[in-house]
Amino acid sequence: MEVIGVFNPGAIATDDGVLLLVRVAEQPVERRMGFTALPRWDVESKSVVVDWLRNDECDPRDQRVIKRKKDSLTRLTFLSHLRVVRSRDGKHVDSVEDTAFWPSNTYEEFGVEDPRITRIGDTFYITYVAVSRHGVATALASTKDFKSYERLGILFPPENKDVVLFPERIGGDYYALHRPNAATPFTKPEMWLATSPDLIHWGHHEQFLGGSEEWDIGRIGAGTPPIRTAAGWLEIYHGNSKREEDSGIGIYCGGALLLDLENPRRIIGRSGRLFVPETKYELEGFVPNVVFPTGIVLRDDTALIYYGAADTYIAVVEFSLADILNSLRSGC
Ligand code: MAN
Question: pLDDT for 7-28, tens place per residue?
């Protein structure tokens, strides 16, 4: 396999800097004339296998996925796993660790993707996307050291991704933002909110926020796990601009929300579009025009926001917390 992108990282502050859990997307090195390579994790043999599909038997939907003509079902052209990267200053890579979080069960055969990390007590909880022939779901794992992981199962069944956990109980319950994606399009994909007594069983689902502006009308989803500030929970999310009539994937931008500390259902501030693809590495890559925030680390008055750029790279943007909070319009 060869790496085609390292992007959409979970991020967490550690005693000696910042730890990123990065998504590594790979595709087979081998090419066969007239065939498309579709990698998957084979649960039986615990190894990557490649299914070769004749090009005239599939429709490319975009660069990430093909549709098999026989049954109209989707496959990814790459396979993702997760890997630990450490940085002392949060801006330069000091080490990439050998141990990796590979797919390991039926729900992960087409990859594990887009981890978000929330520290609760002395445990790190990782929500991640598990992709398989059964759909795109979100699963939970926990770790104390990022060397061994305990898988806690699927939290939100297909199709659901962009799940972030709040870092503490609020009024006795855990809270999550999640993003169901319905096959019958009564709506564009919107963010929902749910609560849980134990991080495993989720209920009290409520629609939370849908896109309403030009930049987020296509879909929105949670980005970074919410962090507590004196003013409220700060959530950095993404929006996509694609309208039905647009070709391609649309533009992904970042925005900020401020939620009531006691009742996170209540949005008390909203930035609108906060950061947009503008550098070469955001405008060009496997999927052009993407900034996709997935991790945040607060340092005094500064927020380091880690994001996937063009589904190819990891970048970090530094904001003063005061600037973000000042950008918020109240109400909404
Ligand atoms: C979308 C994109 C891909 C991802 C798949 C499955 O097509 O977000 O990056 O691999 O969904 O999650």
Answer: 999 999 999 999 999 999 999 9
Six token digits for residue 86: 């450490």
Domain that holds residue 298: 2-330
Q: In a 3-state reduction of DSSP, which class is residue 55?
A: helix
Contact at 8 Å (CB) between 88 and 16? yes
* Residue 170, both tokens: 């609020």
Contact 262, 171 (CB under 8 A): yes
Instruction: Give the mutation target among 113, 138, 179, 313 for probing the ligand 1 site: most ligand atoms within 8 A of CB.
Output: 113
User: Which ranges in the chain belong to alpha helices (H)?
Assistant: 280-283, 321-326
Nearest CA to 316 among 160, 90, 100? 90
Determine the number of helices (DSSP H) and then strands (DSSP E) in the chain.
Answer: 2, 26
pLDDT per residue as tens digits for the range 37-68: 999 999 999 999 999 999 999 998 888 899 99
Three-class secondary structure of residue 45 per DSSP: coil
Q: Is 65 in the pocket of ligand 1 (CB under 6 A)?
A: yes
- Please report, for the domain that includes residue 107, its CATH number: 2.115.10.20
Can you tell me the distance from the alpha carbon of 134 to that of 154, in angstroms, rounded to the nearest whole number? 12
Distance from C-alpha of 115 to C-alpha of 118, rounded to nearest angstrom: 10
Rounded to 10 degrees, what is the CA torsion of 216, 218, 223, 229?
A: 30
Q: What is the pTM of this model?
A: 0.97
Separation CA 252–CA 23 (nearest Å): 18
Q: Is the CB of 113 under 6 A from ligand 1?
A: yes
**What's the structural domain count of the chain?**
1
Q: 3-state class of 156 per DSSP?
A: strand
> What is the distance between the alpha carbons of residues 59 and 74, in angstroms, rounded to a whole number?
9
DSSP codes joined into one string, 136-148 = EEEEEEEESSSSS
